[in-house]
């Protein structure tokens, strides 16, 4: 049982280590078997339950006149911003919005605040731009915040909470505080910010009744305008690019979307556009009636990004102050399917497989985001959070009575929308149920494959009108295009008996250390071909595994000790306190490690190679400085260690694994070292740099001369006894270093740990850190 818990702990530590390289909005499930985007609670500056007080101070006495004059040119006016006692000088401030500016005659304008206006290094809690929206045409103050919050588990959504604004000491009232769709946002959701970002809006002409379908519909809704890139520039605002020919990418995508025959569209388009994300995008905008968006009205106020790493375009929602209005409760689920100005709807909805994929996403969003209990409870929470501030807001655009009444308007909209959707014939079609998804390698359940092995995925599929076809989708890495292969229930593919509902398929071998995502699609045996997915949130919620690295026969060299937060312990030859890693040779003979590899990224197994003629003497040590400074003398790796935890891997010159260690959060100037030296498990202790780890005393069994803590493993109560009665403080953290609990106890007192899940923990007490296993 102990070994099983230890393996669970190691797996969780490995997933946490790998997660250091993932975007903020992407995470592994607790068991490490799924990769999920958007499901984490928003914290930090945009934490939903925190109203941020922001103070602006303008030196110019006529600042309002200058802000007004600067509106058309979008020129920033300098000001000083104060937040939580911290002062941010020379931020740029301007009015923002179109109708929310032009139709508002009062001083309740929307504001764009640029933190890096004069200092490119300045940001506020990691954000360079703030958007304070005036809640124009939204008497509830909550539409945009509610919409972004309840749809984030399904597709990229902006963070949003509230700010209380003061200008030159005067109360300017409450503002929905909505994240900017900028590079920071892209990096939070995607693997990189390399590529191109456009705001899709016609920049001149094209008003209602003019050519172009009104605003940008027909010109900036991913329409093919011809091969001449200059035709696209008036209809899309290029915000940023790292590519040489960004407009050519846009032309190529729109040409495929609009001109490829429908029977070839899915396979062809999926290589240049993320179709699945596009369908979630449509489901979000249509389900919640985003009236001012890609799908309606101006066909604008949305963004598109072209990702360099996967070479695909993705549409992104933006500006949601007009969602959930009364007239949208009866919007068709296939809005604009017959309107050629909106090709995402007009073209994708005409492909039967994509229409059914879209409907599957609509059902998921309907059941989880438009669930009446979840919707109403979130709405009530937001109202209770801001009620007092709205009532006191001296510049609000609505009466307090109108604010109160609007809550029922939103509830009525939700009920009408649910009733309308539930009455849709296509929506009501029943699909299959997919469950009991497991994987195996060579008949061994839950074993990860080596690079020469295939992985077999098995699932039980039942219910509805029966199964017409089932597919297994798979893709290497954390993002990118999925391939698919058919799943069998014929009794000839290790799937049990023919027709028993057990379906299997194989994922072919992938390179060592690589991650592979996968999910299952089942097509029901009915006229529509109703589709179901597992996980239901595919492709942003998928199963994942990592291919094992083949082990080397060179077993005498080990990672023996390292320090990932060296602030004052050991200097390198240039007098610098850098992270370091110590290797040890357990044999009596020298071993040549020329061209061996050291890496901190299991997805990059060729990161730092040792130079020629590198040897470790028998029973000797070798120090590598992890400081990204290869110009210095000695061994200096091209990576640094993360004090919050990650993984170190040592591979031989052929790429076979020699040794590895996964570690959680580390303390400053303490080492993580093998005890006994060279062979034992890792413990936290005072460093023995370039020497035997057994030469310092360390407690690993939760007992020392002054303090005894037992039992270990523990299940219910953890007991503390000391030689001399006294009070002491303790802290228990999970393996990633996040604090679980902190208490002050007295000698002889017991701590109830029955509510802690089984697993591996770190306990800090009397200036020492020890390992603790909870076992239920």
Quick structural gist:
It is built from 12 helices and 41 strands.
Explain this structure.
This protein is an alpha+beta fold and 776 residues long. Helices cover 19% and strands 30% of the residues. The chain is built from twelve helices and 41 strands. The chain is globular and about 80 Å long.
Which structural traits does this protein have?
alpha+beta; disordered N terminus; seven-stranded antiparallel β-sheet; globular; 12 helices; seven-stranded mixed beta barrel
Q: Mean pLDDT across all residues, rounded?
A: 90
Strand segment count: 41
Distance between the termini: 10 Å
Q: Which class of secondary structure composition applies to the elements?
A: alpha+beta
Largest sheet: 7 strands, antiparallel
Q: How do the helices and strands line up, and which of them pair or pack?
A:
Elements: H1 2-19, E1 26-28, E2 34-37, E3 51-57, H2 63-70, E4 77-83, E5 86-96, H3 99-102, E6 110-114, E7 129-132, H4 143-151, E8 160-167, E9 170-179, H5 183-189, E10 195-200, E11 237-241, H6 246-259, H7 262-269, H8 275-287, E12 302-307, E13 312-317, H9 343-348, H10 352-368, H11 372-392, H12 400-422, E14 433-441, E15 444-445, E16 455-462, E17 467-476, E18 483-486, E19 502-507, E20 515-524, E21 531-534, E22 541-546, E23 557-563, E24 579-585, E25 591-592, E26 597-599, E27 608-609, E28 615-616, E29 621-626, E30 636-637, E31 646-651, E32 657-663, E33 671-674, E34 682-685, E35 707-710, E36 717-722, E37 727-734, E38 739-746, E39 750-752, E40 759-765, E41 768-774
Parallel strand pairs: 3-8, 29-30
Antiparallel strand pairs: 1-2, 2-22, 3-4, 4-5, 5-6, 6-7, 7-9, 8-9, 10-11, 10-12, 12-13, 14-15, 14-16, 16-19, 17-18, 17-20, 20-21, 20-22, 23-24, 23-33, 24-29, 25-28, 26-27, 26-31, 31-32, 33-34, 35-36, 36-39, 37-38, 37-40, 40-41
């Amino acid at each position: 049982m102990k070994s099983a818990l230890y393996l669970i702990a190691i797996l969780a530590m490995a997933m946490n280590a790998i997660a250091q390289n993932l975007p903020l909005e992407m995470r592994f499930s607790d068991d490490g078997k799924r990769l999920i985007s958007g499901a984490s609670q928003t914290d930090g500056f945009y934490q939903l339950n925190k109203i941020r007080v922001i103070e602006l101070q303008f030196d110019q006495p006529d600042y309002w006149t200058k802000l007004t004059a600067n509106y058309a040119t979008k020129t920033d006016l300098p000001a000083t911003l104060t937040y939580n006692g911290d002062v941010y000088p020379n931020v740029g401030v301007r009015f923002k919005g179109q109708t929310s500016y032009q139709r508002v005659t009062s001083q309740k304008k929307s504001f764009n605040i640029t933190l890096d206006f004069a200092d490119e290094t300045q940001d506020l809690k990691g954000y360079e731009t703030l958007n304070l929206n005036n809640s124009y045409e939204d008497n509830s103050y909550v539409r945009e915040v509610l919409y972004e919050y309840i749809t984030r588990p399904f597709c990229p959504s902006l963070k949003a909470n509230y700010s209380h604004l003061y200008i030159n000491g005067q109360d300017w009232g409450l503002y929905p505080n909505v994240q900017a769709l900028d590079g920071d946002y892209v990096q939070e959701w995607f693997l990189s910010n390399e590529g191109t970002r456009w705001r899709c809006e016609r920049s001149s002409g094209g008003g209602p009744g003019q050519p172009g379908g009104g605003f940008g519909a027909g010109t900036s809704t991913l329409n093919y305008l011809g091969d001449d890139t200059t035709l696209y520039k008036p209809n899309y605002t290029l915000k940023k690019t790292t590519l040489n020919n960004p407009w050519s990418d846009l032309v190529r995508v729109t040409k495929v979307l609009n001109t490829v025959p429908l029977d070839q569209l899915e396979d062809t388009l999926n290589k240049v556009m993320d179709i699945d994300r596009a369908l979630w995008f449509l489901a979000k905008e249509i389900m919640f009636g985003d009236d001012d968006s890609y799908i309606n009205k101006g066909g604008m106020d949305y963004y598109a990004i072209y990702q360099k790493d996967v070479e695909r375009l993705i549409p992104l929602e933006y500006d949601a102050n007009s969602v959930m209005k009364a007239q949208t409760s009866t919007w068709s689920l296939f809005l604009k399917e017959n309107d050629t100005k909106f090709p995402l709807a007009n073209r994708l909805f005409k492909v039967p497989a994509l229409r059914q994929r879209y409907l599957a996403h609509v059902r998921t969003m309907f059941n989880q985001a438009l669930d009446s209990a979840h919707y109403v409870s979130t709405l009530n929470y937001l109202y209770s959070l801001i009620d007092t501030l709205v009532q006191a807001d001296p510049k609000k655009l609505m009466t307090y009575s109108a604010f109160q009444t609007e809550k029922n308007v939103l509830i009525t909209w939700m009920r009408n929308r649910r009733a309308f959707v539930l009455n849709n014939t296509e929506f009501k079609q029943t699909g299959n149920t997919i469950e009991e998804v497991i994987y195996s390698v060579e008949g061994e359940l839950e074993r990860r494959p080596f690079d020469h092995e295939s992985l077999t995925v098995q699932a039980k599929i039942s219910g509805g009108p029966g199964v017409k076809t089932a597919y297994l989708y798979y893709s290497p890495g954390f993002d990118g295009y999925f391939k698919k292969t058919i799943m069998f229930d014929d009794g000839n593919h290790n799937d049990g008996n023919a027709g028993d509902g057990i379906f299997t398929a194989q994922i072919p071998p992938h390179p060592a250390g690589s991650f592979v995502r996968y999910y299952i699609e089942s097509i029901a045996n009915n006229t529509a071909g109703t589709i179901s997915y597992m996980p239901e949130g595919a492709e942003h919620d998928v199963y994942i595994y990592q291919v094992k690295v083949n082990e080397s026969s060179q077993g005498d060299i080990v990672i023996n000790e390292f320090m990932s937060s060296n602030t004052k312990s050991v200097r390198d030859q240039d007098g610098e306190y850098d992270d370091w890693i110590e290797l040890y040779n357990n044999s009596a003979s020298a071993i040549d490690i020329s061209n061996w590899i050291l890496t901190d990224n299991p997805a990059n197994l060729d990161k730092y190679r040792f130079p020629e003629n590198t040897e470790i003497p028998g029973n000797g040590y070798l120090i590598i400085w992890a400081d990204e400074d290869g110009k210095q003398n000695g061994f200096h790796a091209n990576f640094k260690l993360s004090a919050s935890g990650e993984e170190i891997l040592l591979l031989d010159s052929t790429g076979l694994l020699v040794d590895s260690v996964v570690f959680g959060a580390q303390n400053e100037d303490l080492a993580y070292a093998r005890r006994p030296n060279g062979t034992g498990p890792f413990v936290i202790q005072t460093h023995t740099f370039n020497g035997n780890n057994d030469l310092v005393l360390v407690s690993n069994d939760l007992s020392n001369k002054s303090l005894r803590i037992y039992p270990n493993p523990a299940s219910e109560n953890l007991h503390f006894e000391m030689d001399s009665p006294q009070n002491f403080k303790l802290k228990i953290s999970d393996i990633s270093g996040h604090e679980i609990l902190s208490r002050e106890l007295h000698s002889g007192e017991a701590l109830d740990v029955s509510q802690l899940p089984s697993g591996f923990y770190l306990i800090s007490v009397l200036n020492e850190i020890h390992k603790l296993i909870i076992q239920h």
